[in-house]
Amino acid sequence: MIEKTAAELSQALSSGELSSTELTQSYLDRISKHNRKLNAFITICEESALEQAKAADEKRATGDKSPLLGIPLAHKDIFCTKGVITSCGSHMLENFVAPYDATVVEKFKTAGAVMLGKTNMDEFAMGSSNETSFFGPVKNPWDLKRVPGGSSGGSAAAVAADLCVMATGTDTGGSIRQPAAFCGITGLKPSYGRVSRWGMIAFASSLDQAGTLSKSAEDAALMTNVMAGIDSKDSTSIDRPAEDYTATLNDSLDGLRIGIPKQHFAEGLSAKVEQAVREALKEYEKLGANITEVDLPNNHLSVSAYYVVAPAEASANLSRYDGVRYGHRCENPIDLEDMYKRTRSEGFGDEVKRRILIGTYALSAGYYDAYYKKAQKIRRLIKNDFIKAFEQVDVIVGPTSPHTAFGLGSKTDPVAMYLEDIYTIAVNLAGLPGISIPAGFANGLPIGMHIIGKDFGEGKLLNVAHQFQQQTDWHKRKPNFEPED
Amino acid sequence: MALDKSEVEKIAQLARLHISEADADEVASRITDILALIDQMQSINTETIEPMAHPLDVTQRLRVDTATEKDRRNELQTLAPAAQDGLYLVPKVIE
Amino acid sequence: MEWESVIGLEVHVSLSTKSKLFSGSASAFGAEPNTQANIFDLALPGTLPVFNAEALRMAVRFGLAIGAEIGKQSVFDRKNYFYPDLPKGYQITQLDFPTVGKGSLSVTLEDGTEKVIGVTRAHIEENAGKSLHEEFNEFSGIDLNRAGEPLLEIVSEPEITNAKEAVAYLKKLHSIVRYLDISDAIMAQGSMRCDVNVSIRPKNTTELGTRTEIKNINSFRFVEKAIYSEIRRQQEVIEDGGKIIQETRRYDSNKDITTPMRSKEVANDYRYFPEPDLLPIVIDDEYIAEIRAELPELPDAKKERFSKEYSLSNYDAGVLTATREMAEYFEEVAKGCGDPKLAANWVTGDLSALLNKNDLDISDSSIQAERLGNLLSRILDNTISGRIAKMVFETMIDDNDSVDSIIAKKGLKQVTDSGAIEKLVDEVIANNPDQVQQLKEGKDQVIGFLVGQAMRLSQGKANPGQVNQLLREKIMS
Description:
The structure holds 3 protein chains of 3 kinds. By secondary structure, chain A is an alpha/beta fold. Chain A has a domain at 6-256: Amidase signature (AS) enzymes, CATH 3.90.1300.10. Chain A contains 15 helices and 11 strands. In chain A, strands 1-3-2-4-6-5-10-11-9-7-8 form an 11-stranded mixed sheet, with helices on both faces. In chain A, β2, α4 (103-110) and β3 (114-119) form a beta-alpha-beta unit. Chain B has helices at 5-14, 21-38, 73-77; strands at residues 62-63, 83-84, 87-91. Chain B has a domain at 5-43: Histone, subunit A (Orthogonal Bundle), CATH 1.10.20. By secondary structure, chain B is of the alpha+beta class. Chain B has a two-stranded antiparallel sheet. Classes of the chains: A alpha/beta, B alpha+beta, C alpha+beta. At the A-B interface, α9, α10, α11, α12 and α13 of A face α1, α2 and β3 of B.
């Protein structure tokens, strides 16, 4: 049963053939058996998970039919969880017990979901491989010598390896979609502003968005139903009426206009990935979709602009880690300056420090216009490209990543690592929703297909993804990482 | 744009990061590489383009002025590396 | 060489909202350390700002009061620097698009002339916490109660030419924000703080000299003294062939000198950029009109009305409208007794002297406006004389009894009974034959002496008018 989707398990729980307590215990057993190998979880909440499961069972008994009631999930360790360590993958917050719940966490609590634990991640979400975590890299369940992608690599690996039913993630430049692609699961980044950022530790405030890692588009819809909505505590959360994302899953795709950006099928894309995506497009044609080429002429500048905007915002967002009110403080500082510098140099890893330095540089006197302002202008051009493309098409489809999961330790050059996100980053800069769904395999490794929607078009994205999953079973394939018994 | 060691030191000071003498060259060269990537932006003219600070084209909501938070000092100060008599302690501040 | 100085003021006013600028923490003065510092104020990871509607309303109120342009779209920015009293490592402020743009206010100079001083802008920003250095040997203690409280930073044009003008400007600002009820503006408590930019240049030249900034001056008097002292210092430096360094200084009131502050950063580079956690604040005309309609009568308008409606001198009208409390007090007294002129004399005279002597604000006066009004009414209805009224006034300071009870209990009621007055007059005539003779011979000024004698005999209680009249009747007939 651990391999089932939330939608399936919800029915099983509802019919009484299964209890949340049993289900939760199965996942806890599986976590304790496999987490050492995968390193997907940083914190496991055995006791509280079982309590929550028991409470969910009691609620079920009273006739509560909330879809996620009693469903075990994991939260990326970027979400503050009251009373539970919230480390953000960093030594800086290694012992930080959050005194409050993120809105996302609170909403899943209210929905009755069971929190199994907190998943590993790139430090402060800065990475595309999960190798920057203070708690060590996560292993890809499809090949333990490969990365799961990042920064939500722990969540992606945990879902792929059936260590939980579903998990939350965050996506600043591809941090949900790329690990979903590498791990062969479904990963949705909603539109900027759709999900509250309150309690989600900030990396780059104008790009960060919480989303879902799940076994199907239908599960992503169930999760988004819970997560989406205005939050008075987040000024950037959008006041839009609640939608039922499951209601449109089965809409017909007949006449759907799919745009194929030529820039996403250009140099650097692996032939096998391209082939898989083109095969997938044929499925859509069978469903009645029309496919046309679209132009995103400024896409090649998205990585450049991103590596100004994101580090600039991060450099300020991470100034609060100063050893005064919480978190790491160096031993015996000789004075204030020494406290700041040693605390921050010890508490942050190399990639985080690198990005703080880039961001500080980009904002510093004399460089603001050439870097930060320029990047904001490029951002506008990128957004305009999408607006124009969406005049002709309903969704844009391409590969999530240029290739499949790469080997642990194989990318030491930061620039090469940054270019991993060449197809996903523009979506964050423009604030659009994007989803990655499994679309095939190359050498036994999953390939992700990327679908980009219009502003607040996550309903359409989920519909398009779900219909594909009705025709294919890529998303049902399971990794075999368990050694022969 | 190439960054030299002294510039790295200046930025590190602004960011309150300590970069050891041994690492400074390595850090400078990594950042120089990244700046080369970033500088691809300079290839196009954006003179007439309005900067976009935010993906949302909406305006700020306002909060009603009421004190909703309760005193949680004792609980919150358990998180602090050093606190005494209700105050957070830091090495002496010299103005 | 003759020098002239160019002075600009940056005044921080604490807005008296109930909660902080971006969080629901209380913002009361004087709470136990860190009891008003909650998760956002402590910059806990994941917390976000939400803007206080009242802070915006107050800023717009101020803007309208000084005739300023109101920013239809204002934007918050982050100002980055490290300091233990700044939890986020950046201050949320407004750089390029402040809520309040260019405006001006007029001040009355010592010679009675009016001068208009420009306000460059006023922007909304967060306050920082406090570092306490005394209690712990090698440590400082950080109290973040104040962190995140709303401030309005009001920046003047460099149009102030001397210390007295600076103080007049500051007092006017103080008066306006208190009239508007947007701040207590108590300098001693830090709810109004002043940074002064000073530079000097040879008289009648136009190029600005290098300026220094004197930070955090906490009284009107020290602002004046600090400016004098800094101008003196700059002149000495330049006349000794030195150069003024652009730097931040502090005023040491004990030694009456300014000294350089240890610079916060080797070179300040605040790396401002738009605050991504907040969106642009958009204000429409309707909102502005609504606030404009709620504006109270402001000091200048009130002054004009007082001088017209109550026929007061420009000076008296100015003194009486300097603070809203003073103006309200005066109007209550004037209404109570029905004679604004008499009320003005008493409020600017005896009452002000009493308050000054005891260093009290008018709102702390033990003689409330209603009681002073009653007292003046008793002069006007001839119950007591002006002289007796001063005695009653003295008694009222410590005696909370009603004016009438005090007069009765001390037996100070004026004698108006004609029989009693006749007896007094007869006695005076009998005792002062020489003066009576002189009056008869036409030396009219002697009447004053005779009235005085009668008043003395009555211990001040006789009605002087009646005495005067009766004396003349008896002597001249």
